[in-house]
Write a structure and sequence with these properties.
It is a single chain. The protein is mainly alpha-helical and 394 residues long. The protein folds into 2 domains: 32-98 and 113-190, Cytochrome Bc1 Complex, Chain D, domain 2, CATH 1.10.760.10; 196-383, Orthogonal Bundle (Cytochrome Bc1 Complex, Chain D, domain 2). The chain is built from 12 helices and 6 strands. It has helices at residues 3-18, 34-43, 56-59, 122-131, 141-148, 154-161, 169-186, 196-202, 209-219, 272-275, 313-322, 372-383, and strands spanning 76-77, 83-84, 102-103, 109-110, 248-249, 290-291. The chain is globular and about 70 Å long.
Length: 394
Amino acid sequence: MNMLAKWQQALIALLLWTSLAGCGSKTSPDPLSPEAALGKLIYFDASLSASGGQSCASCHQPAFGHAQPNDLPAQPGGSHLQEKGQRTSPSLRYLAYNTPFEVDAEGKAKGGFFWDGRAQTLAEQAKQPFLGKVEMANPDVPSVIAKLAVTPYSAQFKKVFGSDILSRPEAAFEQMAMALQKFQLEDRSFRPFSSRFDQYLAGTIKLTPAEMRGLDLFKNAEKGNCAACHTAEKDQAGLPPLFTDFSYDNLGIPRNLALKHNQDPSYFDLGLCAKTPEDKRSQSAWCGAFKVPSLRNAAVRQAFFHNGQFKSLREVLVFYVQRDTHPEKWYPQSADGRIDKFNDLPLVYKNNVNVEEVPYERKKGQTPALDEAEIEDVLAFLRTLTDADLKPTQ
């Protein structure tokens, strides 16, 4: 981790921890700093895109947990909103607690932003869509700043960042990104901790019997084993569980032919190993691994995993426990009659798929780790992770 990333992360930690007390309990939002207030204006401003029709909020809508509002595997973008990306739009909620990409002493990858960890900070993550060909599609930084210069808030931008800031496009772009980062850090809608599960942790409500059974199954290392990656306990400082450890896993998700890129049989989205910094691309064991998302507000989502292959939370749970016991449900049959398991990976990387941890350690024909009734109980628990301003759709 470079010194700039360390400094930014220390600042983020300070901002978050100084405001954590009482999180989710206030009836009115805290006032935003001038920088964060500009970040909010930028976040919702579609005029900053080449199409004039896409903002940050288009793919990360507050009403959907700051995630995509539909079941598409990738959101439309480009200069005429006719281009298709290759991945779903993950939620931005609770992402402020993420850390820059790093590899621990055991060689485990953790942190980083986007599905593949290619950005080190929220600010770095915020910059990339403005220039993405299948996203906001601006050709270069000066074109972004030219659009910013004619917004109703351009004078406010100059007041905060300097009267000459718009004449220095690269510097202005950096300040745009930092403003977006500050907005996400300061606005508590990105981390409300207001779900029924948070109320349960605070001792103000009780969960139903089905929800409690689901919680037990979720944490049981011999059953759901979900908490192995989707942490379900408070941390040492008392932060409520984020339901992710920000690590990466290769689950062998089936290929989604609805994605334009996947129409080419030679194309494979290799995730972490293809998008991490150059000195880490030699880690072939990471090929096919993607970021473990938070399960907070998972019951609001309509498309799951990096490629949007699954459309319901129930289908996701069934896949988890039946991927190996009933592979014919998820993968196509090859010409020789065999099931083409893990068909969204080249043959050389299929051994990277997690087949050791519960519930993936089972073989074809064996009993799945969870039965139908247990799946319903886990679903009941997952719905308790929905923030109070949202409504479960699953």
